[in-house]
Amino acid sequence: MLPMREYAADFLEVFHHVDGVIWKLERAQTFDEGENPSWNAMRAGDWRRSLELLEAARETIAADLPARGELRRLRVVETPLTAYLQWELHLLALRMRLGERGRVLDAGELTGIERDGPLPELVIFPGRHMYHVHYDDGGACAGARRIDDADVVAAWGSVVSSLYERGEDLLTYVDKRVVPLPPPRMGTEAR
Fold first, then answer.
1. Can you tell which superkingdom this protein's organism belongs to (predicted)?
2. What is the DSSP string of 3-58?
3. Which of 20, 84, 99, 111 has the most neighbouring CB atoms within 10 Å?
4. Measured between alpha carbons, how far is 76 from 114 in angstroms, rounded to an integer?
């Protein structure tokens, strides 16, 4: 497994130079976003400030999108939404308005697939390799295992793209199901 620093360096070496679709599968319902100001405002109970800080970070978020490839994110959701997920879906909606593509899939759609446990957190680069991303007990990224086996990468790419096609447009989901919610409250969810 690549520790966080090595994973980040390895990831960035390819991310902004790759052509084609980069797949991202997110399954966990809560993560730790570290020093992200918007995340920390939400955790402190200031939802209005959290949303303002997301909007203020628009330029930084845009710079975080791939320069040449197209990032397609599949976000699996369980309801009721965790406070983290309510916050993250607002972030992902902004990322979509800036050029990312995303869909939401209800976790109930995965019952036949997740017999042995939840799907892994994955980032798949076209025709190259993928990362199985690992998190510590608090939900902070701890690094990733890089997988270079072309057959494994292709198989997971097929799974994620198939699930993506079954998902709902992320912006539509956020507008219908997330925007109307009251401000999230931390401490009510479990990982």
1. Bacteria
2. EHHHHHHHHHHHHTT--SEEEEEE--S----TT-HHHHHHHTT-HHHHHHHHHHTH
3. 84
4. 12
* pLDDT tens column, 97-136: 999 999 999 999 999 999 999 999 999 998 879 999 999 9
| Beta pairing partners, 133 | 121, 144
Instruction: Report yes or no on 189 lying in a domain.
Output: no
- pLDDT, tens digit, 9 for 90 and up, residues 42-88: 999 999 999 999 999 999 999 999 988 999 999 999 999 999 999 99
CATH value at residue 83: 3.30.870
Residue 91 within a domain: yes
Angle formed at CA 126 by CA 125 and CA 132, multiple of 5 degrees: 30
Q: Is 28 a member of any domain?
A: yes
Between CA 14 and CA 175 the distance in angstroms is 33
- Distances from the Cα of 43 to the Cα of 28, 35, 86, 106, angstroms: 18, 11, 12, 25
Greatest CA separation for the chain: 46
For residue 186, being part of any structural domain is answered with no
Is-contact 18 68, C-beta < 8 A?
yes
Structurally, the chain folds into a number of domains equal to 1
Put simply, whether the predicted model's pTM sits higher than 0.70 gets the answer: yes
Amino acid at 178: V
Q: Determine the Cα–Cα distance for residues 142 and 134; give it in Å rounded to an integer.
A: 6
